[in-house]
């Protein structure tokens, strides 16, 4: 076991060093948006507190917190007045008392993008009938597994994701990628602890560019013709804690926090250094008779600069939401600005979770 841990640590250290020198700072960002209205209303503090099929995304080890035989979850959101669409679906199944499987699909897309390469006809006249349309989409398929293990008479849960990523920009370019996540979870009375190493061995996207469709336009406009390339998503570490603050037969209050570590140099986060940047998240959940929920969260703590005066100030992204539970059905709502992708300041997000026992 010690030898395996040593090999894992050496591998992680090597990839972190590689990330700090050659890899891009942002890659596959659509996988950072999050899933499920509950998690989004809690400021994405889900590393130690996710449940149901959504746990496969946040921390696959938490799949074992679900005692149902089958669990499914759906979410749909639209941005820029419906131009961009974000869809998620997840399904998990119990294998036995100590293990569980899940599969998830995430898709972020923009449809009907105008292709104006043929806007001018052979005579140089505008011809709007020549406008064609294409779709740009980012797709991810997650295959998750979780299992309970015993370490020195203590029960832990471990889990992992195998991710297949397919990204497509019309007929112009597409890429295939593959990556792995590893996670763990431990519960002690009113405390829960979770950790996830995303893109543990880095995630690689191999881009294929159809240069024949782009050559003429790029030459005329003086742009460099893109070529086939490899895009790398470097490892990041999430650590989460949840504490039941108050609990009785009628209502309860839970507080949770996450710390997200990135190792690709300084980012605009609350804590940053050349080795790692740390982004904290906070969330609170009020529960009434296991039927109604009120949620508050805060994330995206950043330092901004006023354009008028040049003064700097700190900002954060608030979020809120409610949840209703009827028997085995959960309907959740979140009011938040997801990844700054919405057309307005805030987005309305709904998600549905169904369990079968």
The name of the CATH architecture is Beta Barrel
Radius of gyration over C-alpha positions, nearest whole angstrom: 22 Å
Poorly predicted tracts of residues:
1-22, 339-344
Beta-strand share of residues: over 45%
Q: Provide the CATH top-level class.
A: Mainly Beta
Mean pLDDT: 86
What is the helix fraction of residues, given as a range? Answer: 10-25%
CATH topology: Porin
Count of the domains: 1
The name of the CATH superfamily reads monomeric porin ompg
Order of helices and strands: HHHEEEEEEEEHEEEEEEEEE
Distinct helical segment count: 4
Helix and strand content put the structural class at: mainly beta
Q: List how many beta strands DSSP finds.
A: 17
Main β-sheet: number of strands, strand sense, barrel status?
Answer: 14 strands, antiparallel, barrel
Outline type: globular
N-to-C terminal Cα separation, in Å? 36 Å
Description:
This protein has a 14-stranded antiparallel barrel. The two termini are 36 Å apart. The protein is mainly beta. It has helices spanning 2-21, 37-41, 55-58, 211-220, and strands at residues 70-79, 84-96, 99-115, 132-151, 154-169, 173-188, 191-198, 203-209, 229-233, 236-247, 251-262, 271-272, 277-288, 292-305, 312-326, 329-336, 347-356. It has a single domain (2-356), classed as Porin (Beta Barrel).
TL;DR?
The protein has 357 residues and is mainly beta. It is built from four helices and 17 strands.
List keywords for this structure.
357 residues; mainly beta; Porin; 4 helices; 17 strands; 55% strand; globular; disordered N terminus
């Amino acid at each position: 076991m010690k030898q395996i841990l040593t090999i894992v640590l050496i591998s992680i250290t090597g990839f972190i060093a590689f990330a700090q020198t050659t890899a891009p700072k942002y890659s596959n960002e659509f996988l950072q948006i999050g899933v499920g209205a509950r998690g989004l209303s809690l400021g994405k503090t889900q590393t130690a507190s996710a449940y149901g099929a959504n746990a496969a995304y946040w921390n696959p080890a938490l799949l074992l917190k679900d005692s149902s035989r089958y669990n499914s979850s759906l979410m749909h959101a639209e941005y820029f007045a419906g131009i961009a669409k974000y869809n998620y679906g997840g399904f998990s199944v119990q294998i036995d008392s100590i293990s569980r499987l899940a599969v998830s699909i995430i898709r972020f897309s923009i449809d009907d993008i105008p292709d104006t390469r043929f806007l001018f006809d052979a005579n140089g006249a505008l011809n709007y009938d020549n406008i064609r349309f294409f779709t740009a989409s980012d797709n991810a398929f997650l295959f998750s597994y979780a299992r309970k293990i015993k370490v020195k008479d203590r029960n832990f849960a471990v889990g992992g994701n195998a991710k297949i990523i397919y990204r497509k920009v019309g007929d112009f370019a597409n890429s295939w990628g593959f990556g792995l996540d590893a996670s763990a979870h431990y519960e002690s009375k009113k405390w829960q602890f979770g950790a996830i190493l995303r893109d543990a061995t880095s995630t690689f996207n191999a881009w294929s560019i159809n240069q024949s469709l782009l050559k003429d336009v790029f030459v005329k406009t003086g742009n460099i013709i893109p070529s086939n390339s490899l895009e790398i998503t470097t490892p990041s570490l999430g650590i989460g804690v949840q504490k039941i603050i108050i609990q009785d037969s009628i209502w309860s209050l839970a507080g949770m926090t996450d710390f997200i570590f990135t190792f690709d140099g300084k980012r605009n986060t609350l804590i940053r250094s050349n080795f790692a940047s740390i982004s904290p998240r906070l969330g609170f959940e009020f529960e009434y008779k296991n039927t109604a929920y009120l949620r508050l969260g805060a994330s995206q703590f950043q330092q901004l600069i006023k354009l008028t005066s040049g003064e700097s100030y700190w900002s954060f992204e608030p979020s809120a939401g409610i949840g209703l539970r009827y028997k085995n059905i959960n309907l959740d709502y979140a009011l938040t600005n997801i990844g700054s992708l919405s057309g307005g300041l805030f987005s309305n997000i709904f998600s549905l979770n169904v369990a079968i026992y």
